[in-house]
């Protein structure tokens, strides 16, 4: 694997993702705050080249200005959302290919949580940075997009190679597992994954990255067969305590 990816906890339950190339170049996705990223970058002994943004929410962009000032990193985000993202050096559109720390990356449309949300797929490294579109055993709230858009976005992610690492924006797995078990109580993969999540949390470890294959087997939102099903379980999750 030419590039490694590590979660960096930010704020209360966010993850930024630090990408490291063998030559020491670094990139970060969705830095919700600067301090933990700067600590991780400095510990990696590197220089931050690039900041990738999946969407405009403050818990994903809050650290950008400080990291740009500190490292001179370039900022990559959706052209369609440029008006509400921090200033972009590279404005991208879905379908476009870009270079991130020396490897090719595909920009994928992933509307649903917001309109203009994008995901970054590293096909040669089996890495997916998906922001608040897909979570382990869950998906993002539909704050701007429609169930149709989220269904299409999740389908687009579900057909990526099963070994692809799902690097999502939040540690929501424990509550997602509780809800998912109400949807598919008889799903053995889901039960096994819920047990694993409980163990990981008890040890204070992140439950992510997970993989596309695991999510296809256990995540009821990824497994929804049609838009109506996705809409129904998304609405149920919104009211789940
Ligand atoms: Zn968000
Ligand atoms: Fe978020």
Q: In terms of topology, how is this protein built?
A:
Elements: E1 4-10, E2 14-20, E3 25-29, H1 35-43, E4 47-52, H2 58-61, H3 64-71, E5 74-78, E6 90-92, E7 97-100, E8 103-109, E9 118-122, E10 127-131, E11 134-135, E12 138-139, H4 147-158, E13 165-168, H5 173-183, H6 188-202, E14 210-211, H7 212-218, H8 220-223, H9 227-238
Parallel strand pairs: 3-4, 4-5, 5-6, 10-13
Antiparallel strand pairs: 1-2, 2-3, 7-8, 8-9, 9-10, 11-12, 13-14
Helix pairs in contact: 4-9, 5-6
Bound molecules: zinc ion (ZN) and fe (iii) ion (FE).
Residues 57, 59-60, 132, 169-170 line the site of fe (iii) ion.
Pathway: Secondary metabolite metabolism; methylglyoxal degradation; (R)-lactate from methylglyoxal: step 2/2
Family: Belongs to the metallo-beta-lactamase superfamily. Glyoxalase II family.
Function: Thiolesterase that catalyzes the hydrolysis of S-D-lactoyl-glutathione to form glutathione and D-lactic acid.
List keywords for this structure.
Glyoxalase_II_hydrolase; globular; binds fe (iii) ion; 241 residues; six-stranded mixed beta sheet; zinc ion binding; beta-lactamase activity; Hydroxyacylglutathione hydrolase; alpha/beta; binds zinc ion; hydroxyacylglutathione hydrolase activity; Metallo-beta-lactamase, Chain A; 14 strands; single chain
CATH superfamily membership: Ribonuclease Z/Hydroxyacylglutathione hydrolase-like
| CATH architecture call | 4-Layer Sandwich
Number of helices, where a helix is a run of at least 4 consecutive DSSP H or I residues? 9
The counted number of beta strands is: 14
Q: What's the CATH C level? A: Alpha Beta
